[in-house]
Amino acid sequence: MLSTKSFPVIEATLPIIAERISSITPNFYNRLFAAHPELLNGIFSRSNQKNGTQQQALAGSIAVFATYLVKHPGVTPETMLARVAHKHTSLGVIEEQYPIVYKHLFDAIAEDLGDALTPEIAEAWTEVYWLMAHALIKIEKGLYAQQANAEIYTPWKLVERTETGVDSVSFSFEPADDTPATVAKPGQFISVRMPMADGVRQVRQYTLSGDIEQANRRTITVKLDVNGEFSPVIHNDLKLGDVLELSNPYGDLVIDEEGAPLVIATAGIGCTPSAAALQTLAARGSNRKVTVLHADQEVGAWPLREQMLDSIAKLPQATLGTWFERGELPEELNAKAGYMDLTDALAEDAEVYLCGPLPFMHAVRSQALEAGIPAERIHYEVFGPDVWLAA
Ligand code: HEM
User: Fold this and answer.
1) Whole-structure pTM over 0.90, yes or no?
2) Where are the transmembrane segments (predicted)?
3) Best residue for ligand 1 mutational test, from 31, 50, 56, 58 (most atoms within 8 Å of Cβ)
């Protein structure tokens, strides 16, 4: 909780800090990477660095955190902290790095605000930074401790690759050494680290799309982004038998086999977490009521379609609805033309999980809220930095 001394200072300076974040951020990263160039080799994504909005996620989240402390004294934004902590642990962020980020962030703030940054303001924002940092460090230590090993990355070998949908491929890996592997939960993701053509290592997070219950197998499904840096390498250069680095599984958007009626609404490659969840529910003989809703450009573009239909067939209380922008609308898929519409799908006590592109999630989340589902029962997974949260 913010001290009584800092509270009014933060309240008064929030608008100016929030407004300056976009100019503070590039300066912060320039300073950070000048002092620690190693952070650009295997930790920070250089694609995100090129994208101004995504670059702002880290510093922006401190302003979001401060807003929260001012609006809800005594409460911390658990969902946001958990999301960041899971991302950090999948990248191997450690406690010793927090003073480094602090130094360069606050040097950038000092330069940006100049004389406007009084000692009183600097002290109040330092308090916010460390409140957030300590909350993150605590969650991150707990997450590391839950793993079956103390490694950040271990080597895994590509053993299977299967084309699915359009431009998507499932890759399955098995351990390439004898480090004990953590059993994942459906909905979790791993970091994948690989050297790019110039030798610089890059990292991406991918949701596990199947084989969840087998600790010694990790399966991810990757959509090709021809303009991206990472997916073309994994699609075109990775051969069976190749070894790359995978992190332990992280992510708190986990779906249980018991509980309130479940509505899983996805679009495009956003179906990967739900495909894993449905497969796991089916394997565990779950009797949970599940409504599976998927939107895609056309039937053939739907990745993991066979796996999902197979799981749905095994779940006694599962129903399916689909929406396609073009092409055939198969009756057995309960298909409709156009964009997803949740209006008839929502029981009042439903637990809703969303995953897909941001515009899709904005639209579907609004529909769920309008239908009377409280915000805390609407869960979502954003692929890439959560600029939605930071906004
Ligand atoms: C990502 C916040 C400290 C490394 C992020 C994200 C946020 C964030 C909001 C985006 C998460 C998402 O994808 O949705 C913070 C805050 C910190 C902090 C508030 C301090 C209080 C650190 C430290 C490191 C670090 C000490 C280690 C050097 C990273 C990396 C990413 C990340 C590598 C992924 C960014 C990318 O590749 O684009 N952090 N962070 N962070 N953070 Fe932190």
Assistant:
1) yes
2) none
3) 58
